[in-house]
Specification:
Keywords: WD repeat. The protein has 358 residues and is of the alpha+beta class. Helices cover 22% and strands 40% of the residues. Strand 19 and strand 20 form a beta hairpin.
Length: 358
């Protein structure tokens, strides 16, 4: 556990005996899952400033484990009443937080890479497919087959649960709308774009920003509002059921954060911070409090550049017009000069002839 402001370690647990692949927490519970297939849990201690006694020295019965998975834990999530765990044993298990019993087992045909719950549904990825489940009954509501070329590694969901984001081995990010019906839920692809040259391993969403971490060592930061405007322009006010997506109407990523080593495995966003970690063994924290101000300044600079460009264009047009009138005046002057010479010659000849006559 780290202090994000100071960058100092607050506490660390004893070795758990395996590689930890997933962590999730709220104000009541902290869970961690590893390659040995267990979920290690810490209950919050209200008297502690940082809630969780990772060292296990304050109180007893605040630390326990859940065993039922037969493979490494790859993903964990929490809501108010449940714990969700995904594993390479090709299952997603739903646990009741009060009784600590497994209430549902959602079976897949391949390794489970990621999951994200919302209300009474949970979305999971297995292989290249994406599954939408009813949590209470374990009913499969919908399947997005071959969502990516290769494995679908990452998931994120909007705060309302209406929009789903997927990231995969092909470096692409897809945006779907989940339309809930009385009997079934339909999933419609709204947008797609490819901000990365490597696999997308992690996604995080906090309105209005979607951030992705990739094996190419970069973070992509996308403004969700611009994606919504683009999708509405493309598909109308209500999302169509046509799956043909015009990528030219999709806004590119608004920010690309560099300076990492390769293989960024995890990213999170919240409290005006972006936190990411990867293969280099370093956790980086980005201050995100001024992002909107930076965006407004960038927009103002773009407006100033556009205005200067238009002003230069108008000046160029005016100069060209003045140059055209100058040429016309010079031609007229030349014509007048020629006519004047002819008249003078004619007058001189007339005077000579009159002298001759005299």
């Amino acid at each position: 556990m780290w202090d994000m402001e100071e960058g100092l370690s607050i506490a660390s647990s004893r070795p758990l005996g395996c590689t930890i692949r997933a962590v999730a927490a709220d104000t009541k519970l902290l869970v961690a899952g590893g390659t040995d297939g267990f979920i290690h849990c810490w209950k919050a201690v209200e008297s502690l400033k940082h809630l969780f006694d990772l060292k296990g020295v304050e109180k007893q019965n605040k630390e326990f484990r859940l065993w039922e998975h037969e493979g490494p834990i790859t993903s964990l999530a929490l809501d108010l009443t449940r714990i969700y765990s995904g594993s390479w044993d090709m299952t997603v298990r739903v646990w009741d937080r009060s009784s600590l019993k497994c209430t549902q087992v959602l079976r897949h045909g391949d390794w489970v890479w990621s999951l994200v719950p919302h209300d009474t549904t949970v979305v999971s990825t297995s292989g290249s497919d994406v599954f939408l489940w009813q949590t209470n009954t374990g009913t499969l509501l919908n399947v997005i087959q071959n969502g990516h070329v290769g494995n679908t590694y990452a998931l994120a969901r909007s705060c309302t649960g209406d929009f789903l984001f997927t990231g995969g081995e092909d470096g692409a990010i897809h945006m779907f709308e989940i339309i809930s019906g009385s009997d079934e839920s339909s999933v419609v692809q709204v947008a797609t774009w490819i901000p990365h040259s490597g696999a997308v391993y992690s996604l995080a969403f906090e309105f209005p920003w979607l951030v992705s971490a990739s094996s190419d060592g970069k973070l992509a930061l996308i403004d969700f509002r611009k994606l919504l405007r683009a999708s509405k322009r493309t598909l109308g006010k209500r999302v169509s059921r046509d799956n043909d997506i015009d990528q030219r109407n999709i806004e590119p990523p608004q920010r690309m954060l560099h300076g990492f080593g390769c293989n960024l495995f995890s990213v999170g966003i919240g409290a005006d911070r972006i936190v990411c970690g990867g293969e280099e063994g370093v956790v980086r924290i980005w201050n995100f409090s001024e992002a909107l101000e930076i965006e407004q300044r960038a927009r103002a600079l773009r407006g100033i550049r556009l205005e200067n460009r238009m002003r230069r264009r108008r000046l160029q047009i005016e100069m060209n017009n003045k140059g055209g009138r100058t040429d016309q005046c010079s031609v007229a002057a030349k014509k007048k000069t020629v006519n004047g010479d002819r008249n003078s010659v004619w007058h001189s000849k007339r005077s000579i002839s009159s002298k001759v006559k005299t």
